[in-house]
Amino acid sequence: MESVKETLGLRRDYTQKETNLIERAFAFAQKAHEGQKRFSGEPYFNHVLETAKILANLNMDATTIAAGLLHDVVEETAIDEKSIENEFGQEAMFLIRGVTKLGKYQYKGLTRHTESLRKFLLAMSQDIRVLIIRLADRLHNMRTLEHVREDKRRRIALETLEIYAALAERLGIGQVKGELEDLAFPYVYPEEYAETLRIHREKSKDAKERLEKMYRSLHKAFLEGGIRPVNVDYRVKHLYSTYKKLVKYDMDPEKIHDITALRIIVGSVEECYRALGIIHGKWNPLPGRIKDYIATPKQNGYQSLHTTIFTGDGGIVEAQIRTAEMHRDAEFGIAAHLGYKEGLQREKGHTLHKKLAWIEQLAESQKNLEESGEFLEHLKMNLFADRVFVFTPHGDVIDLPEGSYPIDFAYAIHSDIGDHFAGAKINNKLSSLDTKLKTGDIVEIVTKKKGVPSSKWLDHAKTPFARKHIKAATQKK
Ligand code: MN
Question: How far does the centroid of ligand 1 lie from the alpha carbon of residue 188, in Å?
Answer without folding.
Answer: 22
